[in-house]
Design goal:
Oligomer: single chain
Structural class: alpha/beta
Radius of gyration: 18 Å
Largest sheet: 8 strands, parallel, barrel
Shape: globular
Amino acid sequence: MNPVVEICCGSYYDAWQAAQGGAWRIELNGALMLGGLTPTTATVSMVKEDLNLKVVAMVRPRGAGFCYLKEELAVMERECREVLEAGADGAAFGCLKEDGSLDQESNKRILDIIKGMGREAVFHRAFDCTDDPFRTMEQLIDLGMDRVLTSGLKPTAMEGREMIRQLQEAYGERIQILAGSGVNGENARGLLEYTGISQIHSSCKTWREDPTTVRNQVSYSIAGGDKTMCYDVVSAKLVEKLIKRSRGI
């Protein structure tokens, strides 16, 4: 069976590019420069209306870490309902305590919303900030999570491939393991073969220029160097290449 290639998207345009490249599942975000926040309901509904894609919507109210105030959690619960009502097929989220352990109560509140609407629940890369990945994985399985996105507790999935392999061997028959961070057409096949996983997550990123980014000594730049005037977008060509390489083509 061909591996599942999930594309990380930050906009409707990104989703369109992912679809053009042959992807069938995306993680849909807003503000990818902050690690991904909850997308707008307009973006979710337009993607579902116009594109033949399975959409997992991020539920994350801010940047930085994953230890949330009660006020932030209340926002997350409402955002979760709204993106699912807008048509998302699932939601990605993750709540931790200050010591890096799983905040089971907060996660369950959001999980109950997702499962109550018959959708898919994904624990995102908050997993890579947990204090004990094996205990956390057991807890996520007990909670009823469908899938976990991880780089193996390292900056990239290739660096964390040994941990990913261990997790797949220990839990792969009980929960889906999705490897992400730094995955591309050059390393995808090797990662799949080494770890035994069947799902990968990639941004397939390129750059697009916006000439109004820096003008009159006022800058809204999100990148440096020769990308000062640019923002990142998904490349359909890179998506197509990743899918082919992941299949050994």
